[in-house]
Write a structure and sequence with these properties.
By secondary structure, this protein is of the alpha/beta class. 35% of the residues lie in helices and 26% in strands. The protein has a four-stranded parallel sheet, with helices on both faces.
């Protein structure tokens, strides 16, 4: 496993309006190994946008179509030491990775981005 990159995990549901901008921000700001999308049954262009952007797409239905379950299933597919969950309507800012990398080096188990604040757990 590599610790200098992350797998980015995104849960989507009818996210066509925001997904393209989300992916652009990730590409600009995060040194990722792979981007994995877990879709919960979108009926808009979400999956087409994801595929056009070259990300891995997994579809979830039935009992697996719950946000926590989708995140868990995506995490099982991740191959990096760290994983990064980003909501499909979030646009990470330019120095996002600088702040996250500092947290990762401090051996903290989890970091959450809460609007303008950073909270360490």
């Amino acid at each position: 496993m590599r610790s200098d990159t992350v797998d980015v995990l995104i849960v989507t549901f009818n996210s066509a309006r925001t997904l393209e901008k989300c992916l652009e921000a990730i590409r600009r700001s995060v040194p990722y190994e792979r981007i994995l999308i877990g879709d919960g049954g979108s009926i808009d262009d979400t999956i087409a946008i994801a595929r056009r952007n070259g990300v891995e797409v997994y579809s979830f239905t039935g009992d697996d179509n719950k946000i926590g379950r989708i995140r868990y299933k995506l995490a099982e597919k991740a191959g990096t030491d760290w994983i990064l969950y980003i909501d499909s309507d979030v646009y990470v800012y330019q120095n996002y990775w600088f702040v996250m990398r500092r947290t990762m080096r401090s051996n903290i188990g989890m970091a959450l981005a809460l609007q303008e604040c950073w909270k360490r757990i």
